[in-house]
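Q: Structure for this?
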Amino acid sequence: MHLEAPQQILLLLIILFPLGGAIINGLLGRYMAKGLVTLVGVGSVAVSFALAVASFVELYGLSHDAEHAALAYHFYEWFSLKLPGGTVVPVNVQFLMDSLSGVMTLVVTGVGGLIHLYSIGYMGEDEGYPRFMSFLNLFMASMLILVLGSSLPVMFVGWEGVGLCSYLLIGFWYENRDYAAAGRKAFVVNRIGDFGVLIGMFILVAVAGSFEFAEINAAAVGGEFRPDFPILLFGVAPSLATVACIFLFLGCTGKSAQIPLFIWLPDAMAGPTPVSALIHAATMVTAGVYLCCRLSPLFITSEVVMSIIAVTGTLTALLAASIAVVQREMKKILAYSTVSQLGFMFAAVGVGFFAAGFFHVFTHAFFKACLFLGAGSVMHAVHAHGDADIFKLGGLRKQLPITRWTFLASCLAIAGFPLTSGFFSKDEILLGAAAQIYRADNWLTTSVGWFTLIGLTLAAVMTAFYMFRLYFLTFTGEYRSADQSGDHPYDAHPHESPPSMTIPLVVLGIGALGVGFLGLPHVMPITGTHLPSWWSHWMHASVAGQPVPEEMGVVNLASGLAFGAMAIGISAAWLLYRNKSTDALTNKIPARLYQLAFDKWRVDELYAATIVNPIKNVATAVGHADMTFVDALMTKWPSFKVRETGRILARLQNGVVQMYGAVMVVGVVVVLAWFWTPHSRIEAAFEGTQVELTTPAGLGYEYRWDANSDGEFETQWERAPGTRFEYSHDDVRGVAVFLGNAASGIERRIEVTEEWSPLPIESVIPEESLPPRVMGFEVRVDGEELLFRQANAPVGPSGRQEIRLPMGRDGRLGPARVFSRPLVEATVEVRNTFGNMRRATKEIALPFPLGAPSHASLIQPAREVVR
Amino acid sequence: MGIGTYLALASVLFGIGATGFLARRNMLIQLMSIELMLNSVNVVLLAFNRAYPANHDGQVFAFFVIAVAAAEAAVGLAILIAYYRIKKTLDTDDATLLKY
C-alpha cells in the first residue's frame, strides 16, 4: 500500500546513516584511527539527527494543512502473504513519519546523539571502542526502523534488531561471565515477549487483512475486531481485539520490562553506562509504550486489556519503586527506577491516556538519560567498575559540580518538582487515573481507576524518596572513600569528567527541566485557567485516547496528589539522608522486610523455582533419555549388529588360499551352467499390419520362428534374432477384452465370460472421478458381441440400458474405453553353440482388427499378453 | 575339426590348472596353475575367433590376456620372493597374517 503522503527519501537516509556507520566501524573499525572511528560513529548519528529535524520541520509544515499529516517513503515490496480466502497481503518496507513517530525519531536521534558524544569520553580508553560504536550505531538503525516502520513486520525487524543490540551491548564485556549471562537473560526473556508480538500480529493480519498500522487502526475503528475469538478462553469468548492486544501486550512486557518479564532489565546494567542510558532507559524499553500508542485505536476498544495494562503498569511501578528504595548501587537504583517509570507509562496507556503515557516517554528520555550519564560520570570520576556503591561515595558536589547540578535537575524532574518536565508528565498520568474514576460506568473501570490512582501516588512518593536518597548519599556529606579505609574503596581523588561527557549532561539536564512546557495541562489546577497544550494537540493526529477532563475537582485531586507525593518523598529523603553516611532506613522498617526488598522480593528465585528449574529438569531428563534410549537404539544397537554380522562373515576370510580358489571355481561352474542352455523370450512391435517379432540376441545363438504357433516353423535356423510376420484371419486364436482410461492411457485386460460379471471400471479410473451413471456396469459375451448393462437399474425399455459392442470395435462408457483385440500366439526356438535348444511362446494381442474368427472360442483366460 | 574339440581341450587345461591351484600348497606351483587356466581361456578365445572371425575379437582378447598374464606373473613372482624372505617358506598354509 502506498500511503497518500508525500514521499520523503530523508526517512530512509535517517536509518541508513547509522546503519552505514555500524557497518564501517564493525568491519573496518579495528584498522582505523580512533578519531576516524569517532567521526563515523558519532557523525553518522549527528547527520541522522539533522535529517530527522529537517523531516520533522517539513511534517510540522504539513500539519497546518491536514489533520493527519504524515511523511512516507516506500522503499520496496519485501514479500507478500496469501491469507486463507485468497487475499494477498503485501509486506512493504515502508517508512512513515507522523506526529507520533516524528517525536520518537527526534528523541532517538537527539538523545542518542548526545549519548554517542558522551561515549567518546566514557568508552574512549576501552580496547573495544570501535566495536562499541558499531553496536551503538546498529542499535540506532534498528530503533529507527522500529519507530519509522509503517507496518508490523517492518517494526518487528527493528524490534528484534534492538533486542539483538541490547544483548550484544549488555554482554559487551563478555569476558566477565556474569555480564555475558545478563545478556543471555535479556535475550531469552525477550523471546517470550516476541512470541506474543508474533501471535498478536498474525491475529491482526487475519482480521484486518493488512499489516499496515493505519489499516489495522481503521479496521479497529470500523469494529472489525469486535467479534468473538473463535476459541474459548477460561470458558468465555473474548473479542478478537482482546486476544490480539493481550498477546501484543505480552511482547510489550518483555521489551518494556513490565511484570512478569521485567527481571532482565536490572541485570542489563552489566553493560556500559551509555548503553544503560540509551537502550535501557531512554529508547528501547519505551518501544512497548510506543507500540501501544501506535495501535491505540485498537487497544482502546478492549476494556479488559486496558484494565490489564493499567493494573500491570501500576503493580510494576510499585514493585520496582519499593526495590529501588533499598538498593545500594547507583545503576541498580536507576534501573529499578526505569522499570517503575515504565510502569507509570503503561498505567497511563491503561487508563486511555496514550498521549500522556507517551509524554512521559518523552520527558523520561531526558531526565533518565541524564541520570544514567550522571551516574556514569560519577563512576568515571571515582574509577568504579561495573557499578558504584552509594555508601562509599558522598560529598561529590565539590569535585563534580557539573555532574551534581545536572543530576539534581534530573532528580527534581523525575520526582515531579513543580515546573520541571516530570511534574507535567506525571501529573497528566495521575489526571488520567482520576479521570477514569470520574468517567467510569462499571465496577471494573472504577476499581481499576482507584487502584491506579492510589498505586501511582504511592509509587510517586517512593520515586521522590529513592531519587533523593541517591542524590543526598552521592553528592552531600563527606567523600567516604577519601581516607581509603573500608572495603574496596574508590579513587581518593575524584575529578570532573571531560567536556565530551559534561556537554551531553548539560543539554539533557536543561531538557529535563524544560521540555515539560511542551505538554502543559489543559486546565490549570486551583485557578482553572485553560492552557494551550501543544503536546496533546500534536499527538491527537495519530494517537487515540480518552477525553481530558476539565472538572476542577478531578484536576485538583490529581495535582494535589502529585505535588503531595513529591513533597513527602523529598522531605523524607532530606531528613534521613542529607549529609548522612549510613542507611537510616534500616532502623525504621523491619529488618526482614528490608532484606526482602533488597533481594528484589526474590522474584528471580521465584521464577527459578517455578519455571526455570522445572524446564531445566525436563531438559536434563530428556537429555538423559536421548543418551540412554535414543542413542542406544539408533547408534549402539545397529553398530552392535554390524559388528556381530561382521564377525560371522569374517570366518569366510579364513586365510586358506585354496578355499578362495574353490569359491572361484564354483562361480565359474555356475556361469558355465547358465550358458549351457540358451535363454529366450519374445517381444513384439507393430508396423502397419506386420508384426516384428524379436528375441534378445546371444553369442552363437541361432533362431527359428513359428510365428502363429501352428507347429510348422516359418523360418530356417538363422543368426538374426528377429523376423517379420503378417497374421491372417486364420491365425487368430481368440479375443482379449481391455478396459482403458481414455485420458491417462492406463489399460488393463479384463476377463469376460458368458455370465454377467461386473465391469471393474474403478481399476482404471479413480472411483471419485467417476460420474454416477458410469458406475455399476456389468459385462458378458453374447455370441460375437460384448454386452454391457447398468447393474443397478430396473430391467425394462426405459430403465436398464444395454450397449452392444461387436468384437474388435471400440466403445466408450463415460470416461472409460472398452475394446477387444485379436489374440495370436508366436513361438521361437533357440539353439546355442553346444547344440542345446529351448522354446519360448507368447500370446500377442494385435492392435488392429482381423475380424472375429469362426473357429476360436471368444472366451480366453486373462493372462498377461504382449501388446 | 569342430569348435567342440578346442573347447574340450580348453576345458581339460582349465580343469588341470584349477585342480593344481586347489590341490597344491606351494605358491610357485599355484602361480603356474593360474597361468595354465589363463592359457585355457586363450584357447577358448581363439577357437571362437575361428568360428566367428568377423572382427577378430577373440584374437585381440587373447593378446590382452597374454599381456595381463605376463604382468601378473611378474608381480606374483615378486610377491613370492618378498614373502619367501620373510617366512623362509612358500607354503600357503603359513600365509595367514591377514586372516580375520
